[in-house]
Design goal:
Layout lengths: L1 E5 L5 E6 L2 H4 L5 H15 L58 H18 L2 E4 L9 H11 L4 E4 L6 H6 L6 E4 L6 H6 L2 E5 H11 L1
Parallel strand pairs: 1-3, 3-6, 4-5, 4-6
Antiparallel strand pairs: 1-2
């Protein structure tokens, strides 16, 4: 599969061969949804915690007669019915993450890349480097390409000037190739890959 290569100045820079097994699949919405759910679940800390009856400080002495009070037969004040007591069925500390096989995660990433290629939202850059760390220069570049929302994935490391210039741009994300993931790819309209990123992603997913 051939794809056009462009520069940051929006000039043509030849073509590149994309692997059909990675960029030419028919996207599966169910697999992408499953992977995004997996990623979102792993982000939850699960540290929310309420006090149970055993953790609330208070006396366990029976404070009212068993009969004759006209009320319920309570044994202590730590129950949920009283102010300051425990909470019934509240959240407890736990892990929210779910299991997903490594092969399925890799397959989902292939489908995410294929989805961008199928929709025409995949852009291949010769290289992603700026001469100066200026946001104004990056904005001009973005306007030339018409990127309103984009994820730029480079090789092993991201250019320092490009990273600093993008800090104040809310809809432009940068990732090294090893950080490529389904959620970040799908949450931005355009996926911008450098030639180095393409090579490393193909080596990773082959």
């Amino acid at each position: 599969m051939k794809a056009d290569v462009t520069t940051l100045d929006a000039k043509k820079a030849g073509t590149v061969d994309l692997a059909e097994a990675i960029f030419g699949l028919t996207p599966r919405a169910d697999l992408l949804h499953r992977m995004v759910t997996y990623q979102m679940a792993r982000r939850q800390q699960g540290t929310h915690q309420i006090k149970t009856r055993g953790e609330v400080v208070g006396s366990t002495k029976k404070f009212v007669r068993q009969k004759g009070s006209g009320g319920a037969r309570h044994g202590n004040r730590k129950v949920a019915q009283f102010r300051g007591g425990a909470k019934a069925f509240g959240p407890v500390e736990r892990a929210h993450d779910i299991k997903m096989p490594k092969k399925v995660r890799a397959l989902a990433l292939r489908h995410a890349l294929s989805a961008k290629q199928t929709s025409g939202d995949l852009v291949i850059l010769d290289e992603a480097k700026l001469k100066e760390a200026k946001t104004s220069a990056l904005i001009k570049t973005i306007q030339k390409h018409g990127w309103e929302s984009a994820l730029i994935i480079d090789g092993q490391e991201i250019d320092v000037n490009l990273e600093r210039a993008s800090l104040n741009l809310p809809h432009i994300d940068l990732l090294p190739s090893q950080g490529a993931n389904v959620y970040d790819i799908l949450r931005r309209r355009k996926l911008v890959l450098t030639k180095a990123a393409v090579e490393q992603l193909e080596a990773r997913l082959s």
